[in-house]
Design brief:
- The protein has 80 residues and is mainly β.
- It has one domain.
- Helices cover 0% and strands 30% of the residues.
- It contains no helices and 3 strands.
Length: 80
């Protein structure tokens, strides 16, 4: 499943052996900071992000959560 989702949700699984990759930031509007927006070296959330499965909302108006696999734990990390 691809697309943009509202990041707030519930982490249902953490992948302790997988490391975050910047490709996993695709779809996050904070991803621009990985490419120097405002002089940044990378997104401030990337350093502490974990690879997780989440249940998140399609947008702020949705009441139904969707399962997103192997995304980042940051608030906006919802690329899958």
């Amino acid at each position: 499943m691809t697309g943009h989702y509202h990041g707030y949700g519930e982490i249902i699984k953490e992948y302790k052996t997988l490391k975050p990759k910047k490709e996993m930031c695709y779809g996050c509007y904070c991803n621009d900071y990985n490419y120097g927006l405002g002089g940044a070296k990378e997104c401030w959330s990337f350093k502490n992000a974990k690879v997780v499965d989440k249940e998140a909302y399609r947008d702020i108006y949705s009441t139904k959560r969707v399962k997103i696999k192997k995304t980042l734990s940051c608030y906006h990390g919802v690329n899958k």
